[in-house]
Specification:
Elements: H1 16-43, H2 50-56, H3 75-88, H4 90-110, H5 113-125, E1 130-133, E2 149-153, E3 156-167, E4 174-181, E5 186-192, E6 198-199, E7 202-203, E8 214-224, H6 237-272, H7 286-291
Helix pairs in contact: 1-3, 3-4, 3-6, 4-5, 4-6
């Protein structure tokens, strides 16, 4: 079991359930994800079956109600899960953040009952991998400038444009994509792997987040039927509320990264001075040292 310091007595503010959730994710990360992470980062590839492993551990869409496959947990529990995943590696937390906050959340908040039943349980179990397409080649910090277009075509629509720097693009089964319709309103579109006119080239040679796969989402006259449009949103509120949820989890992740760096530095200094490590069996490793 990995032990951490608690100088500010944060643990006293957590319920027994929250402490249990944190411990179970901590054990899962140290047993299943930390051993392969260094090799995956060096090879610039993801941990095999990462999403299924995260799903089995209950780390995906924890705040989604159980009726749709989630755990129905509070936001503090979601934050603790993100903290623990980031202690393993930022790439692991990124995968879970995207799946939970950027894919499951918009389907839950803005999707139809059919869309929720079709996608959420499989996203919660990790059977499906999701991605979120907002950033475009000419629009990163200013997503309102988006150029991707959803044009009416008979009973459905045509989607044209591209998104880049998209986490999980090369492996995603479903992408939540944001585009402007004929009346310039921002619509959420569920693009599924295998649709004609949809491709996901990978972005290689990243210098960071190397155990996370990143790529583009390219739409070329892609036909979208009405059932793949999120019905409950038609403005920037859609993508921005997803970013709010993701940023909340990411801020917990930053705490996880800080805890890991502190432990690594402490372990290193104790080992270097032949002193007993109070955090044993947390072991100093080359990978952890590199993170500092
Ligand atoms: C590994 C990785 C994964 C990602 N995953 C996703 C994903 O899953 N989905 C997705 O949609 N996007 C994703 N992104 C994209 C990310 O959201 C964008 O990189 C981000 O929004 C910034 O956009 P940009 O890269 O175009 O930078 P720019 O907008 O070009 O910004 C460059 C710099 O200029 C500064 N800047 C920009 N505008 C202003 C201004 N008005 N005033 C002052 N300073 C300014 C910025 O702070 C920044 O320092 C990912 C990016 C990375 C690197």
């Amino acid at each position: 079991m990995r032990i951490t310091t608690d100088y500010y007595e944060i643990d006293d503010l957590l319920s027994a359930d929250q402490l249990l959730i944190r411990q179970s994710i901590r054990d899962f990360v140290s047993k299943e994800l930390e051993p392969p992470i260094e090799d995956c980062a060096q090879a610039h590839t993801e941990i095999p079956d990462l999403m299924k492993k995260l799903g089995k551990a209950g780390a995906l869409g924890s705040f989604i109600p159980s009726a749709y496959g989630g755990a129905g947990l509070d936001q503090l529990s979601y934050g603790l899960i993100m903290q623990e995943l980031e202690m393993g590696d930022s790439a692991i937390r990124s995968a879970a953040s995207v799946q939970s906050s950027l894919v499951m959340y918009p389907i839950f908040a803005f999707g139809s009952e059919e869309q929720k039943r079709k996608f959420l349980p499989k996203l919660a179990s990790g059977e499906l991998v999701g991605s979120f397409g907002l950033t475009e080649p000419n629009h990163g910090s200013d997503p309102a400038g988006m150029e991707t277009r959803l044009t009416k075509d008979g009973k459905g629509y045509r989607l044209n444009g591209s998104k880049l720097w998209i986490t999980n693009a090369p492996t995603c089964d479903v992408a939540v994509v944001w585009a402007r319709d004929d009346s310039k309103k921002v619509r959420g579109v569920l693009v599924e792997r295998g649709m004609d006119g949809f491709s996901t080239p990978e972005t290689l040679h990243k210098w960071s987040l190397r155990a996370s796969r990143t790529g583009e989402l390219v739409f070329d006259e892609l036909y979208i039927s009405e059932e793949n449009i999120l019905p409950e949103v038609n403005s920037m509120r859609g993508p921005l509320s997803c970013l709010n949820s993701a940023r909340y989890g990411i801020s917990w992740g930053a705490i996880g990264a800080a805890i890991d760096c502190y432990q690594t530095a402490l372990s290193y200094s104790l080992i270097a001075n032949n002193l007993e490590n109070p955090l044993l069996p947390f072991n100093f490793s080359k990978r952890n040292w590199q993170k500092c």
